[in-house]
Amino acid sequence: MRVKNRSLQQKNGVFDPTNPDDGFFTVVPNVEDLQVAYFFRDGTVRNDRPPQDCTWATNCVPVQDPAFGPAGTLPETHAANVIGLRITLTARSSQEVPVVQEPSARFRQPVAENHDPGAAQDRFYRYQNSVFVLLRNRTPRA
After folding, report:
1. Is 142 contained in some domain?
2. Per the structure, how many domains does the chain have?
3. DSSP states of 83-103 as a string?
4. Could you read off the pLDDT of 25-53 as tens digits, one per residue?
5. Among positive and negative, which fits the CA dihedral 59, 50, 96, 30?
6. Rounded to an integer, what distance in angstroms lies between the CA atom of residue 129 and that of residue 137?
7. This protein's superkingdom (predicted)?
């Protein structure tokens, strides 16, 4: 899944690095943002602070390299230590509110996870929804 050209898109088929846009199709139009926050066993939440902070992992994705050794020796930001995800989707109306109804640009994209809160104002209504997913066989530290 990705957001491109104001649409939520899904990949159909195998990723081709020579043509990265090949095989994507639109699932939902008028989507501005898709964010994922990771909840780790040690109680930390990553990818939840504006502006975007990816110093903890490449591209803000938990480490998945199995070369770190057996359980208990993995770094805190390893994918095996993720116990939950929060996924936030921000959509906007397809048309701006007419100037006669809303003469000034006063709406801005709501802050979601690591999205920059200083986005420019406009006359589009926005809708935001979040869902939290708990991974069943993972528990926080006692």
Report:
1. no
2. 1
3. EEEEEEEEEE-SSPPPTTT--
4. 999 999 988 888 888 888 888 887 665 66
5. positive
6. 26
7. Bacteria
Q: How close are the terminal C-alpha atoms of the chain, in Å?
A: 34
**pTM of the predicted model over 0.90:** no
The total number of residues shown for the chain amounts to 142
The residue ranges of DSSP E strands in 1-142, in sequence order, are 2-4, 7-11, 24-29, 31-40, 45-46, 82-92, 126-134
* Local confidence band at 142 (pLDDT 50, 70, 90 cut-offs): very low
Q: Are 114 and 52 in contact (CB under 8 A)?
A: yes
In-domain check, residue 116: yes
Cα 76 to Cα 65: distance, rounded to the nearest angstrom? 13
* Interatomic CA distance for residues 46 and 54, integer angstroms: 9
Establish if 139 belongs to a structural domain.
Answer: no
Instruction: Give the domain extent around 8.
Output: 2-134
**Cβ contact 127:31 at 8 Å:** no
